[in-house]
Write a structure and sequence with these properties.
about 300 residues; alpha+beta; Heat Shock Protein 90; 2 domains; 10 helices; about 65% helix; about 10% strand; elongated
């Protein structure tokens, strides 16, 4: 920070002294270096303020002071232009990610329809074929009930998978009923106790409910796959400007430092959760340790999404 401060003051003095484009170019490079170093925009503004105060404290005529203010503003704008370009790139990437998620939602609806309608029709055809087989081959009759029972189980699982992809309950009744239906099916398949605490009414904005549903679904699948947990709790805390969701399991946990050190890996499928949350301005904090389970603390703003 000290070097950035010194370089900034020196380059601004050069620009105010008439160095022109070369000083502006130096200002741009200072901004780019500061951005790469993780220096905040507020810190750059403070550096500029101190440098400007130093220049204005010199004995100068009113006309000179006005020129200093104007040219210092131009220099500051050039210095922070890397920040503006980075913000623009982030904003464009966020919009692209949002459009991508919308495409995924549409594809999920198509697959859900295929599971529910088309696969359902095929199962009906199989039921009919079994009845015809029993009539044509009496020796097959004792085996038909068992096959029918298996087909009934397949139909139930297809219905649940269809719901998990595009839950109608989420649109009709809201987040909690949809999550409870999801948890019921997952608990049966994975022998996992899942407890869900309600969130105070009124209902959340649609985008928030959709995001929290898919985030919770991804987290539950991660728990089943990695955590070796016996129970999970999901609770919500509604605040004035945000909704917080806490997902805690009693599984084996993991070493967060070791996971973060794995290049090219995001650790237990958390990348998808972070990306979904970033689209709505949310974030997740992960608390875990080996043998102590894992908790995801999720926060999503409400003000901008109504």
């Amino acid at each position: 920070m000290k070097k950035i401060t010194t370089d900034y003051r020196g380059a601004m003095q050069r620009y105010l002294g008439g160095a022109g484009e070369s000083a502006l170019k130096q200002g741009y490079e200072i901004g780019r270096t500061a951005l790469d170093a993780g220096t905040s925009l507020i810190a750059i503004a403070q550096i500029h303020h101190c440098a400007l105060q130093a220049e204005l404290s010199k004995d100068a005529r009113r006309a000179d002071r006005n020129r200093i203010l104007s040219e210092a503003g131009q220099f500051f704008s050039e210095c922070i232009s890397p920040y503006e370009m980075t913000y623009g790139g982030f904003r464009d990437a966020n919009m692209a990610l949002r459009r991508f998620n919308e495409v995924l939602e549409q594809e999920a609806k198509r697959i859900a329809h295929a599971l529910h309608a088309e696969a359902g029709q095929l199962l009906v055809a199989v039921y009919i074929a079994l009845r015809q087989l029993a009539e044509a081959v009496p020796a097959a009759e004792p085996h038909i009930p068992k096959i029918t029972q298996l087909l009934d189980q397949i139909e139930v699982q297809l219905r649940r998978l269809s719901h998990e992809l595009t839950p109608e309950l989420l649109n009709d009744l809201g987040l909690i009923p949809a999550l409870r239906y999801l948890a019921e099916g997952l608990a049966q398949r994975a022998q996992l106790q899942i407890r869900i605490e309600d969130v105070a009414e009124p209902r959340l904005p649609k985008r928030v409910e959709t995001t929290l549903y898919h985030v919770a679904k991804e987290a539950l699948h991660n728990i089943v796959k990695h955590a070796q947990a016996k129970s999970v709790s999901i609770r919500f805390q509604r605040q004035a400007k945000s909704i917080r969701c806490y997902i805690h399991d009693d599984g084996v946990g993991f070493d967060m430092v070791a996971i973060a050190a794995r290049k090219g890996e995001q650790g237990f499928g958390l990348l998808g959760i972070r990306e979904r949350l970033s689209v709505v301005g949310g974030f997740v904090q992960i608390n875990s340790a080996k043998g102590s389970g894992t908790e995801l603390a999720i926060s999503v703003p409400l003000e901008k999404l109504r």
